[in-house]
Design goal:
34% of the residues lie in helices and 21% in strands. It has 417 residues and is α/β, with parallel strands linked by helices. It has two domains: 250 residues, Thiolase/Chalcone synthase (Peroxisomal Thiolase, Chain A, domain 1); 150 residues, Peroxisomal Thiolase, Chain A, domain 1, CATH 3.40.47.10. A hairpin with a 3-residue loop joins strand 14 and strand 15.
Length: 417
């Protein structure tokens, strides 16, 4: 293969992540294969006790407690994951120039947590805005989490956040691939972050929509995609950031390669603020396959977006059946059933958790699937226990969001150099 072809191929060489059940990929993969959920109840201001996914990690490993206090929860998650991704990739500041490194972060929302907290704070002082923090503006600008990463790492290349609702993590990966292929950067830190568990408004809104999950047997049972008794979303925080490099540069330095980003697509439903639309999701999957030059039967693992809402799960299953009919070797799973819905970080966390399948040939299970909804019947849906398959060389990751945004990313195991 000529050098130019390798130059345009973009690969994942490092993964940093924080999930409700893990703070690194090895731990995350082990817990996914076991179906181990640590969703628990939190007592949220104004809302009460609700299931949620909260992350535990070494928050002061890469910056001081004072810096975390001045910054945001999203920034704290992002800084940890960015450092971990670079460490995992074997990269240091000398490998790539800091002005040729880009940081692209997907977010569902940002600033809500800080604003809610400040309003609560001044409510204790009769709403006197003299007590409003002067850190509010830099904390709430949309580029904040990406900017906090650049400050921590001394990166002087471009940084920005991508608002793509719950499709944002995939959107940031796509942006990283495009910027590398355009020659705008030589290294991309791309991924997604969610600090949503800090916002009572998100929980209250889902509850008002009748889409906030609960279960009489406890919080670990609450997230139930495809199950007949599902009743909504479990909100989680989390983050995952990947290092993306051109294949030729990765090979030249002997990098470990998780996989190649071979296809992607984004489109819009253009129909409704909240309700998803299966036909447009099917179009998005089809376009990603076409760009990857793959047939549906070439996909070994399809990781679903399904959040546990009634109509959302049905629409996605309809789209999958349309695109993947008669694909006997495509195996389907769902990560949210284990970790909840990490919003802007969902797509990248779910992709990260499936990448090790290229090495171990296991499809992690969907849990809490006791009685499948007949409208969610899917061939080769892996439930309850992990499934060992003959080959795992391609992963298709679905990630969809409110206001009708859809994203699909396809990653392939490196087999042609």
């Amino acid at each position: 293969m000529d050098n130019q072809a390798q130059h345009n191929r973009i690969v994942i060489t490092g993964v940093g992540l924080v999930a409700p059940n893990a703070s690194n990929l090895k731990e995350f993969r082990a817990n996914l294969l076991k179906g181990h959920s640590v969703i628990h109840e939190i007592d949220l201001r104004y809302v009460g006790r609700v299931p949620a996914g909260i992350c535990t990690f070494e928050e002061t490993r890469y910056r001081k407690k004072k810096e975390n206090k001045r910054g945001t929860r999203a920034g704290c998650l992002g800084v940890y994951c960015a450092h971990e991704a670079l460490l995992d990739a074997g990269l240091d500041q000398a490998t790539y120039p800091v002005d040729r490194t880009g940081v692209y972060i997907g977010l569902t929302e940002h600033g809500t947590v800080e604003t809610e907290n400040e309003i609560y704070n001044i409510s204790q002082y009769n709403y006197n805005t003299d007590f409003w923090t002067h850190h509010h503006n830099p904390r709430t600008v949309l580029n904040n989490p990406a900017g906090e990463i650049t400050m921590s790492l001394g990166i002087t290349g471009p940084h920005y956040s991508i608002g793509g609702a719950c499709a944002a993590g995939n959107a940031a990966l796509i942006q990283g691939v495009q910027m590398l292929r355009l020659g705008e950067v030589d290294l991309a830190l791309a991924g997604g972050i969610s600090e949503s568990t800090g916002s009572f408004g998100i929980f209250a809104s889902f509850r008002a929509q009748g889409a906030l999950a609960s279960h009489p047997d406890g919080p670990t049972k609450a997230c139930r995609p495809f199950d007949l008794d599902r009743n909504g979303i479990v909100v989680s925080e989390g983050a995952s950031i990947f290092t993306l490099e051109r294949l030729d540069r990765a090979l030249a330095r002997g990098a470990k390669i998780y996989g190649e980003l071979v296809g992607y697509a984004m489109n819009s439903d253009a129909r409704d603020f909240v309700l998803p639309y299966g036909p447009r999701q099917a179009e998005c999957m089809t376009l990603a396959l076409q760009r990857a030059r793959l047939a549906p039967a070439d996909i070994d693992i399809l990781n679903t977006h399904a959040t546990g809402t009634k109509q959302g799960d049905i629409e996605e299953c309809s789209a999958i059946r349309q695109v993947f009919r008669n694909c006997d070797t495509t195996f389907i799973n769902n990560t949210k059933s284990i970790i909840g819905h990490a919003m802007g970080a969902a797509g990248v966390l779910e992709l990260a958790g499936n990448l090790p399948a290229f090495e171990d040939n296991y499809v992690h299970p969907t849990i809490n699937l006791d009685t499948i909804d007949p409208e969610c019947e899917l061939p080769n849906l892996v439930a309850g226990e992990p499934r060992r398959i003959k080959r795992a060389t391609t992963i298709l990751n679905n990630s969809f969001g409110m206001v009708g945004i859809n994203s699909v990313v396809i990653v392939k195991k490196i087999d042609e150099i």
